[in-house]
Every structure is written in C-alpha cells, then in structure tokens.
C-alpha cells in the first residue's frame, strides 16, 4: 500500500514501521509528516513514541518533519520530546515554570524546527517572564523561527515585547513582518500602535491589512488620516478592513472626543470612493452585534453616502428604525433626515411605515420625526389625517409636531 493509502485507512502501526525501518530518507520523512495527522487516533501514543525517537536520531529532514508532527499532535507530544532532551519529565503534574524552562532551553537548539516548536510552546504557556528569551530569537537566522517567536510574544501580550517586535517590522520576509504586526496589535499599548502606523503602506497586502485592522484600537484620532488613505488601497480586503477600523475607532475614543473625530472622518470620506466605503458600512449596520459599532455606522451612513448607493443605505436605515436599541433608532432617524432630498425617496420609504397601524409606535414615531424634517405636501396631508385617526397619544404628539414643521394643519 502507498503512504497515502496508509494515512487514508488510519494505519498508524504501518506508518510507524515505515518511519523506523525504511532505507529511503524521503519515505521516512513523508511517514513522519503523515503521523502528525492522527491527533485523536487510538494509536496516537505509538505515533508519538516513534516521532520522538525519529526527532532525536534521524537525518535533518526526518527530524524536522517529526518535530512538526509532534507539534501538530498537541496534548503534550512536543513536551515529551523537549522533556527528554532537557532530562526532565514534562506534562501531567509538571509545574508550568518547569515546562517553560525546558522550552526556553530548546529555543537554542541546533534544529530550527525545534526552536519553532519551543517558541510555539511558550506562546501556549503564556508566561510573561519568557518574553525576553523569545525576543532573543527575533534575530534567528531562520525566518520561520523569527515569525513563530513574534507570534508567541503577541499571544503573551507583555509590553516588554514592544520594542523588539517593532524592529521586526523591517524584516525582509513578509511572513515575519505579518507576525510582528499582528503581535503588536495584540500587545496594544500606545508604543505598539504607533509603530504600526507606517505599515499601512507595506508592500505585503496582509501586513497592510493587519496594521489597518489594529488602528481601530487607538483611543484617539491619530490614525484617521492613515485609515482614509487605506480606503484607496488596491486591495479590497485592506479597504474593507479600513472601514471596519474607522467604525471601531469611533467606538473606542472617549465620548468627549468622538464628535470631533466623527467630523474629521466625514470630511476625509468626502473624497473617497463611495461604494468602497458604503457597502461595508451597510453590512456592519446589518450584521454587527456591537451596539456602539452599529450606532456609529448609522450616523456615518447619513453623511458619507452619494446617490450611487443611496437606495441600499436608505433601506438599511429604515430597517434600523425597528431595532431594539433606542439610540440606534435615533441615529438612523437623523441619518435618514440627512439623506432626504428633492427626489423624496426617504419620504416614499417612510410613509408606509407611518401609516401602518401594526408597526410599533416607537418605530412609527421615529419615522414621523424624520418626515417632519424631509417630507413634502404628501407627508403633511398624511400626518394631518393621522392626527385625527390615531388612538396612540405618542403618535398624535409626534405627528402634530411634524405637521407644524411642514406648514401646519390644512
């Protein structure tokens, strides 16, 4: 049977035999790779034993494959190898500091795959005291080790990693820069976020996307200009991320600053591609579960929309009038008022809502408020009639106020 068939049929024992007995290095390497795919198999223990043995006494390619497979198998597999090499028993009742010490020791191993696995293990342990040792590997000759060490430092999230991670943002390997950017976003302190600002222009699309995605974590308006620049990025994924970050930024800044930043955002958005901004905004309004995000999105949609996407925006805002969030309903109503124009599109969409007695009075009230801002003679007549016909006091009061703004009762 071929190695593929052995893997397909779950023949771990036969794969173990091939790994131990084959004279062909390429065959042993492939067998070691395949043994990493049986995490939940009944014979997993035998696979781990064989891989630990191969990782310590075979050729470099087999060793590398065995280490990678042990790391894939999880649940103490790589700890078994590192423990044997360090002369201690890891897993079970072993204290985390003992395991961490063994992993730190393995960071200096001759085999790069073992240094990678050790870095991964330290990230899983999450002990802040190991960050300096991980940072030492940022100068590793193997870019895979640098990338794994950066990732683990980001998982731990200790501020001591900020400066060393910043140095990786100029690494010649895109994969390393990506991991460093994401790690800095996870650390999230002021220095880390500041270091990411120039990365919106990186040659690697994924680096740009990661950096732009982190800009939403700022507590001030510093990244607004960078985010608006990113709205013109050649990558649709970067542009979309920039929209999400703008909304997230508005949700994170202090309340006393949010109004100024909103005005800045709207001013900057005036010169960007409308569709590239509006479609993601509508999707946030429709799909997000975060109240602050949806409120800010509803507010922006009334001020960052041109005729090309107006129909979809109005539909989304009218739907938001029925939301459980009172503030979202208010933002949607004010944005619909901003969008009212000579074509009376907003009026046409809201009149059926106002005239439907089965619609929740709070929703109808918000629609009536908006018609008082943008309605014409048709709205005035409909609301004038509603004052006499409705049995809902709140509807009557809202309608009377709106009719007054539209010229008074006939």
From TrEMBL:
Entry keywords, A to Z: Repeat
GO molecular function ontology, one term from the record: oxidoreductase activity
Any matching Pfam family: HEAT
Source species, domain of life: Archaea
Protein's UniProt keywords contain Repeat: yes
SMART domains for the chain: EZ_HEAT
Gene3D superfamilies listed in its UniProt record: Leucine-rich Repeat Variant
UniProt xrefs under InterPro entries: ARM-like (IPR011989), ARM-type_fold (IPR016024), Armadillo (IPR000225), HEAT (IPR000357), PBS_lyase_HEAT (IPR004155)
UniProt KW Ribonucleoprotein keyword: no
Entry protein name: HEAT repeat domain-containing protein
Organism of this sequence: Haloarcula nitratireducens
């Amino acid at each position: 049977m071929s190695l593929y068939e052995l893997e397909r049929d779950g023949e771990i024992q036969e794969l173990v035999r091939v790994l131990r007995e084959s004279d062909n290095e390429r065959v042993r390497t492939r067998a070691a790779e395949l043994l990493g795919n049986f995490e939940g198999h009944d014979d997993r223990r035998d696979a781990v034993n064989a891989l630990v043995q191969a990782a310590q006494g075979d050729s470099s390619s087999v060793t590398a494959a065995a280490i990678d497979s042990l790391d894939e198998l999880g649940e103490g597999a790589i700890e078994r190898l590192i423990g044997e090499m360090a002369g201690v028993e890891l897993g079970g009742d072993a204290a985390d500091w003992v395991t961490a010490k063994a992993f730190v020791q393995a960071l200096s191993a001759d085999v790069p795959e073992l240094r990678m696995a050790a870095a991964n293990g330290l990230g899983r342990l999450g002990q802040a005291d190991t960050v300096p040792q991980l940072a030492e590997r940022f100068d590793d000759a193997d870019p895979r080790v640098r990338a794994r060490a950066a990732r683990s430092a980001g998982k731990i999230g200790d501020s001591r990693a900020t400066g060393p991670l910043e140095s990786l943002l100029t690494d010649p390997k895109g994969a390393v820069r990506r991991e460093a950017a994401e790690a800095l976003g996870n650390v999230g302190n002021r220095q880390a976020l500041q270091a990411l600002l120039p990365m919106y222009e990186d040659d690697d699309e994924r680096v740009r996307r990661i950096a732009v995605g982190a800009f939403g974590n700022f507590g001030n308006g510093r990244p607004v200009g960078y985010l608006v620049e990113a709205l013109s990025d050649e990558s649709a994924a970067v542009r979309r991320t920039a929209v999400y970050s703008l909304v997230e930024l508005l949700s994170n800044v202090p309340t006393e600053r949010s109004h100024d930043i909103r005005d800045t955002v709207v001013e900057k958005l005036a010169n960007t591609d409308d569709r590239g901004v509006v479609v993601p905004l509508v999707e946030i309004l429709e799909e997000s579960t975060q109240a602050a995000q949806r409120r800010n999105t509803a507010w922006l949609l009334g001020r960052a929309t041109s005729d090309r996407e107006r129909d979809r925006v109005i539909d989304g805002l009218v739907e938001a009038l029925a939301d459980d969030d009172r503030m979202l309903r208010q933002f949607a109503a004010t944005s619909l008022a901003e969008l009212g124009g000579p074509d009376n599109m907003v009026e046409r969409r809201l009149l059926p809502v106002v005239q439907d007695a089965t619609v929740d009075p709070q929703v109808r009230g918000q629609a009536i408020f908006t018609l008082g801002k943008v309605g014409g003679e048709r709205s005035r007549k409909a609301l004038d009639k509603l004052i006499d016909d409705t049995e809902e006091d709140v509807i009557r009061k809202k309608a009377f106020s709106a009719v007054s703004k539209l010229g008074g009762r006939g």
